Amino acid sequence: MEGGIPRAAAEELDAADPLAGFRDRFVITDPELIYLDGNSLGRLPAATPERLREVVEEGWGEGLVRSWQGWIDWGARLGDRLAEHVLGARPGEVVISDSTSVNLYKLAGAALDAAPGRGTVLMDAEDFPTDRYILQGLTAQRGLRLRRLASGLDGGLDLDVLRSALDQDVALVVLSLVSYRSGALLDMAKVNELARAAGARVLWDLSHAAGAVPVDLAATGAELAVGCTYKYLNGGPGSPAFLYVRGESQAELRQPVWGWFGQREQFRMGPDYDPVPGIERFLVSTPPLLSLAAIDPALALVEEAGMARIRAKGLLLGRLVDDLADAWLAPLGFRPASPRPPERRGSHVSLYHRDAWRICQTLAADAKVVCDYRVPDRLRIGPSPLYTRFTEVWDALARLRQVAAGRTYASRPTGLARVT
Predict the structure, then answer these.
(1) pTM, two decimal places
(2) Can 373 be counted among the known catalytic residues?
(3) 25 carries an active-site annotation
(4) Distance CA 273, CA 262 (A)
(5) 205 is catalytic
(6) What is the mean pLDDT of the chain?
(7) Does the annotation mark 81 as catalytic?
(8) CA gap 364, 417 in Å, rounded
(9) Which of 51, 181, 231, 358 is catalytic?
(10) Does the annotation mark 242 as catalytic?
(11) 345, 358, 380, 389: which is the annotated catalytic residue?
(12) What element of type H or E holds 243?
């Protein structure tokens, strides 16, 4: 194919890739299918089915309730691993529980309750829907003001906009480190610094960052964070989320959902709620243990690969997408819809096209390329460094070019169906 980068260059990148061997440790049932939606749902690690079998057959089947002693602290143990290898946090500051939405509600509620006299919450107007909806509900219940900061669809939130909005009435700022639509990457340390100067707390959503971008919650002075485990962490559909509370803030904050898994001396079944002093006070109820078990082998792969190497490959994959899109797709009505260079974003890349929805559907149905779509007109390409080859990116962009040039998508319906 003329123009752009020759496929041989992608082959050379694969040959030199220090993470190339990790691909064989994932379940890949169709070698011809190019999967570029790891930013929505990661592939299945090959070790996960056996791990689940052990828990189901040996733990549940044979051990029955006796297995609880080995299970009950999985959320905290896995949280400590996530803290050390992915999030740059200290032991006892991360726990896995509930969903991202529920964790966001818990931590936002705790932060607002700890800021009497302040009446404003700030958020990115273009942030992920669940974040927006939960904050709408919380502020409405408390009679607070929710201020939505104008943000570029492609470039993300300008910190000058945030700076000008921070005043002595702001209690909480809620932001995603990596934008779900464009991949725009915020400066965590700078945001935390700006908020602290105004006496406000920051709650970070790390869903599109964890496992793709090195995060250092401790060094950047972060206080609160949540995120999911089913994207770049490959924990499986609907796998439990994580929450982070800086150690120095844990005793001050009391989350609004009081459940028995956050209770001091849990099995004394006391009459009144008295939360434990540590991170477990942000737990609520019995954890989904089978889903927690699936996180174990998935996290082991990330630990072994290391976030530095994962990020290095992610940047190279993103640069390849950029270069091929410029050479092949720009003449066909596409334009970049993510920040450049790749260092300014997470691991996914968005491209604008007026028919992005129909192109996305045609790619999956006719060209065996799975990426995804985001409103209003963005095609989102999400290579995952642990299992995506450079030649897969090259081949996917070549197939995308063919679909766009031939307008084979034109007969697809324009109505938006359910997407995740």
Answers:
(1) 0.96
(2) no
(3) no
(4) 9
(5) yes
(6) 96
(7) no
(8) 14
(9) 231
(10) no
(11) 380
(12) strand 242-245
